[in-house]
Write a structure and sequence with these properties.
With 403 residues, the chain is α/β, with parallel strands linked by helices. It has two domains: 261 residues, Queuine tRNA-ribosyltransferase-like (TIM Barrel); 95 residues, no CATH class. It contains 17 helices and 16 strands.
Length: 403
Amino acid sequence: MTKPLEFTIHHRLDGALARTGTITTPHGTIETPAFIPVATRAAMRGITTEQLTSTGAQAALVNAYHLYLRPGHELIDRAGGIHTFMNWQGPTFSDSGGFQVMSLGVGFKKVVDMTGDRAENVTKKKDKLAWIDDDGVRFKSHLDGSMHTFTPELSMQIQHGIGADITFAFDELTTLHHDYYYQIESLDKRTHPWAERSLAEHKRLNAERSHRPPQALFGVIQGADHEDLRRKSAKFLGSMDFDGFGLGGALRKENIGEIVRWMNEELPDDKPRHMLGISEPDDIFACIENGADTFDCVSPARVARNGALYTRYGRVNVTRSQYKDDFTPFDADCDCYTCQHYTSAYLHHLFNADELLSKTLSTIHNERFIVRLVDDIRASIADGTFFAFKQRFLADYYSKKQA
């Protein structure tokens, strides 16, 4: 294909912004809405790409910051790109590295602050490892303390070296600790100018690297939980020649659907939208209902490695003593490899014995659970049963919290 990305809409949900569609990339298609598992260092910890494929995953997302530090994007490029390097045949996403670099400012999940006294207040006992200015971010490697600087141009060079089908513009991830006026400054002096610089460098690299398949670029919208800033950012980026958009930044969970709607009401309707970093079922439904097409998150695999497994009736820990003598599948309704071949008692034993296989089998289950949930949501949009399915699923999943 000559274009880096094509997006076709198939169904729309009456009374909401939800839709189904197909994203076509040089390495295959993604039926949307879709959950995109995260293979941070060109691997999902503990499972092979073949096992990831068995979960029904249509694409994978790799981490530009980690791959820049180790093994280096130049090496991946020499290997033929990320698809060849990690033996993944489907579409790939690469993030800009911005979240990881910014989070070194405090090392604290999505609450990141790169400036002044507020950084010290937020970091508390953690050492600050990154500093921001209008040109980019200077940071210390978490591996060896060496100093590096990320600019929009370098982020694009890294992502083109990695060779992902869908890349993201470099942006400043602000936090809910920043006041309204800092959010304005961040958009006007960094996120929006950086988007322009990212796009210019991306176009240059696509033209220069004609020996590789063309790559798509998504602009990333910021603005925290302020409606005027979210709409401003969406309008600004939506007027530019991006192939799609990332819905990013810190936001309040209780307002997630509303914030996603603000952005998507302003964005071009004919381009895909990727929600960065969500995987809880209630958030998934809220984001899809309000127009998100794809999303990623490390959480399903991370909690799996600690023994927390998803079920229709919520997340439970297989290390509990009740599973010691349970010789039935962990989830009789699940079609994943783990539930089809192993018992709860065996999983319980693996965790109790600290066997690495415990993490592999649990990760396969959790990834399949979320992938299948989004597949079911996609089908419910197509047949018009979305709202009934949402009500039924969430009532079951959160029933223990409500009890």
